[in-house]
Amino acid sequence: MGGALLFNEFRAVLPLLKEPSFKELLEKEVKENLLLKINAQASRARIANELRNRAGSVDREFWFYFEGLEEKEQRLALYYIILKTYPLLLNFHFEVVLKKWRTLDYHLEKFDLQMRLDEIVSQDATVAGWTDNSRNKIISVFMTMLKDAGFLSRNQLRKPENISSSFWKFFVTAGDLWFLEACFVNKTEREAYL
């Protein structure tokens, strides 16, 4: 598997994602297993559902752009999709990760995210109903996503390196300047892309 970002899985089904009928094509892939190469059909169905959910956060043209990116940029692009798909993870990123970065506190542990989740639990009945196991899992998966996207190494936050200016300009043009901020691009650099 391609980890929490589903990197390998997205790349495997990229030809399908570029088609207008990608949802139906993913259903067919669950049955035929021509691209994903995952043995158990139940696992393929679960992965396909997640791919469908995330892919629904961007338009079809995104995948044509994605195809031409370097691997590290593809990983960041998949992280972008995650932030667009899951409000809780967007909250974690802006309320914990980005705040730590701005205060030059680059050490990130699960406890930092647990503290934020506890705040959310006090305000959100749905999240309050989650089991401790579910809460721990979402935090672990988010930490893995940060590592896979290049934001975290040995519990230390870091800015993704050697990312092309054309990558950042894509998100500015798409009206998602917030993503540059999420990737630790400072205000002066962000303004240069406007």
From TrEMBL:
Protein name in UniProt: DUF1819 domain-containing protein
Cross-referenced InterPro entries: BrxA, BrxA_sf
Native source species: Adhaeribacter aerolatus
